[in-house]
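Give me structure tokens for this 353-residue protein.
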Amino acid sequence: MADQNRTEQATPKRRQEARKRGYIPRSPELTASLSLLGGLLALAVFGPAAMRNLLSYLQGFLLNLRVESLSEQGVAIQAIMVGVQVTAPLVAGSMVAGVVASLGQAGFILTSRPIEPRLERINPIAGFGRLFSFRSVMELGKAFLKILGIGWVALSSLRAGLPLLPGMLVLPPGTLVSVAGGEILRLAIRLGVALVVVGVLDFLYQRYDWERNLRMTKQELREEIRETEGDPLVRAQLKARQRALARQRMLRAVPKATVVVTNPVHIAVALRYDPPEMAAPVVVAKGARLMAERIKEIARRHGVPVVENPPLAQALYRAVPVGHPIPASLYRAVAEILAMLYRLSRTGHLVKR
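Here you go.
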């Protein structure tokens, strides 16, 4: 029933916490199979040259067995160097493929949590339960797939190679070793590819199982949102308080406005223009309905002219945020209003509405 209630996808925070614990989707089968295949491919590319070096060394060693100048130390050093040349491709290919496989599955992660001692690991009851868990069934199925894939590849390769066997028996020893070694290497590469396919399937299952185990209940999701973003009620109250403070600051700027442009009923926009300080008029307050009435009321109380111009008021209300200058497209319309107010103030006929 607990798993049935976990219907929500894991959040980024939950995924990050899982990574910190070392719980990541990773398939050891895929890493091992890619390491094996990488080593075999490197051996296929660099192996012939390494074998030639080995044969050359053995030939030179056998020819110089009776030379007195050949010391035990020199023989050991040469043997080590040849051994490194022969095994280096296999080791280097395996290491590079293994590192790439590990990083490709989960990226770089460094944590000691997976190896920390935990009592539940030695609990016999929990261990007995794991023997009959769904994961155990999947491990059994994975082992069956491995056996099936390896058996099919081996049988198909042997069946294809049987007709060549009589001809190989009459080859010279050197050629026979080379041909047989090439066939064995090709068989090993096919087996490595089959194991990689099984590893990919295992990784897909590990990814699915990881996602399933990280699912959250609705309650867990709400609690995490509350922890990361705060209580929704508190956030709503803070936003309401911020809006109220913004409205108060805006209304305090209306008495310093140069003009208030109205719709005339639904919209009011207060503009301030001080040529020495401003390159263009700035919207210091705007509002609709009740807020528009408040702006007009404050403007009349402080002697700020109120001008009715519905198209301009609507354009200013929609296009210009509070505290921003008007766009160039509205310069002419606003300039006509300011010029009219200037003429009326010069003649003493400015009407404060």
